[in-house]
Amino acid sequence: MFKNRTIKAAMLSMAIACMVGAGVYAAAPDTIKERQHGLKGMGEAFKSVTDGMKAGNLDAAKVKEASATISKTANSMANWFPAGSGSEAGVKTAAKPEIWSDAATFTAARQKLVDEAGKFAQLANAGDMSAIGGGVRGLGGACKGCHDKFRIKED
Question: Which fold has domain 28-150?
Answer without folding.
Answer: Four Helix Bundle (Hemerythrin (Met), subunit A) (1.20.120)
